[in-house]
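Sequence in, structure out. Go.
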Amino acid sequence: MEKKPQFSGPRKPLGAPRPPRPAAPAPGQQPQARRGKGNDRNSKDPYVINDHIRAREVRLVGDNVEQGIYPIDKALRLAEKMELDLIEISPNAEPPVCRILDYQKFLYQQKKRQKEQKQKAAKVVVKEIRFGPQTDDHDYNFKLKHAIGFLKEGAKVKAYVFFRGRSILFKEQGEVLLLRFANDLEEYGKVEMMPVLEGKRMIIMISPSKPAAPKKEKEPREPKAAKQVEGGASKQTTAEEDESSEA
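Output:
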C-alpha cells in the first residue's frame, strides 16, 4: 500500500513578526507584574506579595505610609514608588492587612523573631522516678527528697510503679503509693495526670507549682595575697608590742 504523506500544517515563514503584547488591563482587573523583585513567588512562601494579592482593596499599616484602606492598584503604586514590596500579613482580615516593606528583609526579621522566641521558651525537663509495688519507707523517702529537688528546679516529675510478673496483682497497692507520693508533693507540685496503667507501668505526672527560682550568683572571694598581707601585718604589730614590753 502506498503511504499517504503526513500533513503537519503550514509553517511560519522565517522573519515573521512576533504576536502583539497583551493590552492594558480593563478597570477592575489585576494589573500586570510591575517589578521583577518579588513577583516570582515560590509556592512555599508564607506570604502573598505584590500582584499575587487578589483582594480589590487592602488596609495599609506601618510607619512609612498613611494608614487606611486603599484600592489594590493605589497600594501597588505606592509600593512601586518606594521601591518596596506590598506584603499581605493578615489575609483573613476584611479587608486584608498589608505592609509596604522589603520582602527579603521582612522574611529575615520574621525568622529572627521566631528564633528568639524559641530560645526564650523554657525547655520542659521530665525526671523519672521508679517505684516497686512494695517499696519500703526508706526508699520512698529517698525518692521523695529527689522529687522535691526536681520540682524546685522547675522540672516535671514522672513517677511510675513497675509491675514485674505476677506483681500486676498489686496494681491497687501501686495506685495508693502514687497518690500518697502526689499528696506529699502537694506543696511543691500539682498533679497533671492521675495514675494511669500503661502496660506494666502505672504512671502519674506532677508539674511544678512555682517557677524555678533563679540561681544566686556567688560573691567574689578575697584574693589570697590580701589575706597573707593582713596576717603578716598582725604578726608585725605583735612583735612591736613585745619589743615595747621588753623595753
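Check: The chain is about 35% helix and 20% strand. Confidence is low (pLDDT under 50) at residues 30-39, 225-247.
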